[in-house]
Amino acid sequence: MSNVDTPVVIIGAGPAGLTAARVLTELDIDYVLLSREKVPGENKACAGFIPFSALRDFNISTLPGAHPVTTVRMKFPKQDMKTVEFGAKVGVNVSRADLGMTMLKYVGAGSAEIRLQTEVGRVSIKQSGCEITLHKQGQSEKLTSEIVIDASGVNPVSLKMIRLRERLPDHLMGYTAQYQMRRPSSMGSLNGANDFYYGGDFSPSGYAWVFPRGHDIAVGTGGLLRSFKEEKKRMFDYLDYLISHDDSARLTLENAEVVKRESALVPLAGIVQPSFTDRLMLAGDAAGHCCPITGEGIHYSMIAGKKAAQTAAKAVRKRDYSAGVLSKYEKDWIKAIGSNLKWGLWLQQRMVGSGSGGLGSSLMGSDRSCKIIAEMLVGARSVRATLLAAAPTYMAKKLRH
Ligand SMILES: Cc1cc2nc3c(=O)[nH]c(=O)nc-3n(C[C@H](O)[C@H](O)[C@H](O)COP(=O)(O)OP(=O)(O)OC[C@H]3O[C@@H](n4cnc5c(N)ncnc54)[C@H](O)[C@@H]3O)c2cc1C
Question: Are residue 263 and residue 277 in the same domain, yes or no?
Answer without folding.
Answer: no
